[in-house]
Amino acid sequence: MKAPFGLLLALYDKAIIDVENEQIELGFEANIGPALERVLARASDDTREHCRASAEIAKTTEIDEVRVVGTGYGRARLPFPREQIRSEILCHGLGAHAMFPETRTVLDIGGQDTKAIQVDDAGIVTSFQMNDRCAAGCGRYLGYIADEMNLGLHELGPLALTAQRKVRISSTCTVFAGAELRERLALGERREDILGGLHRAIVLRAMSLLARSGGVADEFTFTGGVANNGAAVKALRDLVAENYGDGTLNISPDSIYTGALGAALFALRDTENVTDPMEVAA
Amino acid sequence: MITAGGMDVGAAAVKAAIVRTDNKGGDELLAGQVQRIRRRDPKAVIRETWNAALEEAGLPESEIEYVATTGDGELVDFRRGHFYSMTTHARGAKFLIPETTLVLDAGALHARAIHIDARAKPLGYRMTSQCASGSGQFLENIARYLGVALDEVGELSLKSRNPEMVSSICAVLSETDVINMVSRGIATSDILKGIHLSMAGRFARLVRALSDDGMLTFTGGLSADVGLVEATREELDKTGVTIEVRTHPKSILAGAIGAALWGAFRHEKLLAKAG
User: Fold this and answer.
1) What pLDDT score was predicted for residue B207?
2) CB count in 10 Å sphere of residue A69
3) Which residue from A103, A145, A114, A102 is spatially nearest to A210, judged by alpha carbons?
4) Co-location of A128 and A201 in the same domain
5) Does B138 touch chain A if contact means CB atoms closer than 8 Å?
6) In CATH, what number is assigned to the domain containing residue B178?
7) What is the CB neighbour count within 10 angstroms for residue A251?
């Protein structure tokens, strides 16, 4: 048995909060000890043991910070010099390439934006299309629908997978889709079927981004929080097969780290004094 | 004299009106009721609103000669006729403010500007579509993120000194923008005024595509938001047009009143035809 992910995450969170709030100049090892005991106080013996073992590895791993590269929506707020900041698109491309080296197309559906990216055989972006400033077609769309239905975000996918008929959602805007949902429920349509239609709608928006960025090549990697949603994955698989034929669709269980992995790889390249990958691309 | 009822079923609220009219300009509003739907069964809300209107008018249902609907009227199973919302809002606005030449129906999901003639006949219209940015639902979301009741939004916006300008933003993603503004320490009134000005800019473009002058009357749910009405006035003034902007305490009922008045008109015609 591996240590439960959520518990470990809470553990690291607690260790970090201590550092931030109390400003004590202590190493990671000194911080994680007390945090571990606090988090594990109510855990079972078995869990406690596994968490201790995982924390032990983290504690004793020497991290020699040579170079850090930051990316993401909040990258402008990072206290890094400009050359240590890379765009999300570059990082996602490279991260997906590291996970699945044959990847040529990457689709990232995150909470606030959606990106369709084409990469070359080195993981460098050759073209991309992006949707932002509009919630339709990104994760927030599903979040809004979940709120409308009084459901948890994680309940949407499994429910939508039990849809029996295809429902076509005619609204694009998230707010209008929410109204359409209420209307259809009032008319007696099944919740599961409508949810299936809504998942298909968000993937359809992504399909148009993909088409504009240059289509879907083999292999194709799906990242971002929405990749954890089984119904969205199924809709994507169906629509890609329908429009571009059979191919490989990769989804990594670590997909949430794709951008961070790409950023780390950029940092690594910097230290190895490799020519700037962006220059190679140009 | 004909006594008629009008039901305006919107996305967020149900409005009911009862009128008495001679169909020659002698129109009288006997009752007007509004109820928010708020995740309830719309049909139950419709019945409740209608009963409240009957009670206010002090009339039994049997005395209402004609019931007409507008908006999502198919949900009203006791209706006899249905009218498009453009014609009903035009008629209702004209009843409330007789000098009206332009109507701005700003509701929960859409905004529509209508140019009308002296008999409340629509001459042309412009409306928003596809996107809920600038709709009532958008404003309601913003108010919720700010922890402000919808009724307080207007007065707060009027107090703003340095409106925080926003570009036209997604009604859903605006949550993040608003959180950022709050964390930057921007006053609630300045955020609301900025949002109002952004919405008003959209409205002004709709109106100006129809006319450069006249009397604009707000109808629909947002007509009660004095901050939005003022912002629309400012945005229109900026463009140098001579359009006076008005709203009326009963503006939210305009669609229902219009439906009732058109219903009475149709009823008289049907009676005449039947001989």
Assistant:
1) 96
2) 23
3) A114
4) yes
5) yes
6) 3.30.420.40
7) 17
Per-residue pLDDT band at A20 (split at 50, 70, 90): very low
Write down the ipTM of this complex: 0.73
Do residue B243 and residue B257 come from a single domain?
A: no
Respond yes or no on whether the N-terminal peptide bond of residue B175 is cis (omega within 30° of 0). Answer: no
pLDDT the model gives residue A5: 65
What CATH number corresponds to the domain at position A262?
A: 3.30.420.40
Same domain, B134 and B183: yes
The minimal CB distance from B132 to the residues A112, A140, A176 is found for A176
Edge to edge, what strands does the sheet with B213-219 contain?
B122-127, B111-116, B102-106, B213-219, B242-246
pLDDT recorded at residue B170: 84
User: Does residue A45 sit in the same domain as residue A106?
Assistant: no
* CA distance to partner chain A, nearest, from residue B129 (Å): 9
B234 vs B197: CA distance, rounded Å: 8
Q: In this structure, what are the phi and psi dihedrals at residue B160, rounded to the nearest 5 degrees?
A: -65, 140
Q: Which amino acid is at A142?
A: L
Nearest C-alpha in B relative to A141: B172
Q: Give the angle subtended at the CA of A252 by the CAs of A251 and A255, to the nearest 5°.
A: 100
How far is A280 from A121, CA to CA, in rounded Å?
12
Nearest-by-Cβ selection for B169 from A133, A172, A174? A133
pLDDT at residue B153, rounded to an integer: 96
Contact B171 A133 (CB under 8 A): no
Q: Which domain, by its residues, includes B159?
A: 102-247
The CA distance from A163 to A197, in Å, is: 9
For the stretch A110-166, pLDDT in tens is: 888 899 999 999 999 999 999 878 888 899 999 999 988 889 888 999 999 999 998
Quick check: A19 pLDDT over 60?
no
Cβ distance B235 to B266 under 8 Å? no
Residue-level pLDDT at A281: 46
> Domain residues for A253?
69-282
**How sure is the predictor about A282, in pLDDT bands with cuts at 50, 70 and 90?**
very low
Average pLDDT over residues A25-33: 65
Q: What is the residue type of B186?
A: I
CA distances from B28 to A30, A36, B16 (A): 80, 74, 14
